[in-house]
Design brief:
By secondary structure, this protein is of the alpha+beta class. It folds into 3 domains: 102 residues, no CATH class; 136 residues, Vaccinia Virus protein VP39 (Rossmann fold, 3-Layer(aba) Sandwich), CATH 3.40.50; 87 residues. The chain is 27% helix and 32% strand. It is built from 10 helices and 21 strands. The protein has a 10-stranded mixed sheet. Helix 1 runs antiparallel to helix 2 and helix 9 packs across helix 10. The termini are far apart. The mean pLDDT is 91. GO terms for molecular function: methyltransferase activity. It holds the Pfam family PCMT. One of its GO terms (biological process) is methylation. Keywords: Cytoplasm, Methyltransferase, S-adenosyl-L-methionine, Transferase. It is an enzyme of class 2 (transferase).
């Protein structure tokens, strides 16, 4: 990127910060200044944009950040920056198929998480998931480089991010390692922010967080997940709530090269069907409902299922049980199941409960993780609790 292009980016920087303020993602002057200062284009020299090619195949088309693409880089959009080498296949000179493994996150989501983190002058921050280095640069702009530490499982990403951070004028401590094990050096932190999803908050994060410190991370709970803001007590209990920000991140991984293949059990044969009031439209429309289902059914997942009858939403369990409802058509109110029929009954009970308490949003639910123990969610107004994987 030329000096001229860097100067040309200044209006886009200012416009992005103003848009994030206008939409409520940025709520304070220090973060407005950071987003107006840190040049995103330095951290995303190339990215992939998904499109359908002339054969009807969904591909990732490589884009380059040149003078003509500055406006695209400064959109409030997630930019995929790396594909899984185990699944990526080049199908054209500038196009690949495969699964993304790293990205520059949606700026409004980043801003909301940084605001929720509640940093203050003098705080030491650990970032899990360095990625491009853009988020670390924003933290450096707010707190100074010496306060920022970042870890990523991919040594290549770490090296590239460190160089881009240096070019942008920042010098945080960036190391390679499995972020779920915490920072590789025995430091403690006032704040921890994770830009990857985890099934439960790792013990290592709680151990490295000072009492009163804050963790902001994305939890994936099988059916659904969400962003939580947790504070660590002196007893080692990390306790807090789901935030008003809604967003999902790629899963944390222990292998820098790829995501491990997930073993799938053989599904039970179809055993019957019956009418249901819980439709695919309800499940797709209401994110808090899916979160409540995840509390009720912590061992289940929600997937799309396609067969000769069309597309459906399917709940399934590790024992092979499943239950599904079509997305559309005359059978949209009919549930078909295999294995344990109570799977869908539990889902209907969760749906009735959520309706009965007024369809609360996700920020009406708390989450707690005990150091070395289990985890649970609860409904803030009444205290109703659900045990979750720890």
């Amino acid at each position: 990127m030329s000096v001229t292009a860097h100067d040309a980016a200044r209006p886009y920087l200012a416009a992005l910060a103003q848009d994030l303020v206008a939409h409520g993602a940025i709520r304070s002057a220090p973060w407005e200044e950071a987003f107006a200062t840190v040049p995103r284009h330095l951290f995303v020299p190339t990215w992939f944009e998904q499109e359908t090619d002339e054969r009807g195949i969904a591909v990732w088309r490589r884009r380059h950040t040149d003078d003509e693409e500055l406006a695209a880089v400064y959109r409030d959009a997630t930019l995929v920056t790396r594909l899984d080498p185990e699944t990526a296949e080049q199908v054209a000179p500038d196009a690949w198929t495969g699964f993304p493994t790293s990205s520059s996150t949606l700026p409004s989501l980043m801003a909301g998480m940084l605001e929720d983190l509640g940093v203050g002058d003098g705080h030491r921050v650990l970032e899990i998931g360095t990625g491009t280095g853009y988020n670390a640069a924003l933290l450096c702009a707010r707190l100074g480089s010496t306060a920022v530490h970042s870890v990523d499982v991919d040594q290549g990403l770490v090296d590239a991010a460190r160089a881009r951070l240096f070019d942008a004028g920042y010098n945080p401590c960036v190391l390679a390692g499995d972020g779920t094990l915490g920072y590789p050096q025995p430091y403690t932190f006032d704040r921890i922010i994770a830009t990857c999803s985890v099934r439960a908050v790792p013990d290592a994060w709680i151990h490295q967080l000072r009492p009163g410190g804050v963790i902001v991370t994305d939890l994936t709970l099988g059916i659904e997940g969400g962003l939580v803001r947790l504070s660590r007590g002196s007893d080692g209990l990390a306790r807090g709530f789901f935030t008003t920000n809604a967003g999902r991140f790629m899963p944390a991984r222990a292998d820098a090269r790829t995501y491990p293949a997930q073993a799938r059990p053989e599904r039970a044969p179809a055993a019957g069907s019956r009418p249901t009031s819980l439709t695919a439209a309800e499940l797709r429309t209401h994110y808090p409902l899916r979160l409540v289902l995840a509390f009720h059914l912590p061992d289940a997942e929600l997937v799309y299922h396609h067969d000769e009858e069309g597309l459906a939403l399917q709940l399934q369990r590790p024992d092979g049980s499943w239950a599904r409802v079509p997305l559309a058509g005359d059978s949209a109110g009919i549930m078909t199941f295999g294995g344990d029929e109570s799977l869908w009954q539990h889902a209907e009970e969760a749906w009735r409960w959520w309706n009965g308490v007024g369809r609360p949003a996700q920020d009406r639910f708390g989450y707690a993780r005990e150091f070395g123990g289990g985890a649970y969610a609860w409904y803030l107004p009444s205290g109703r609790r659900w045990s979750l994987p720890g």
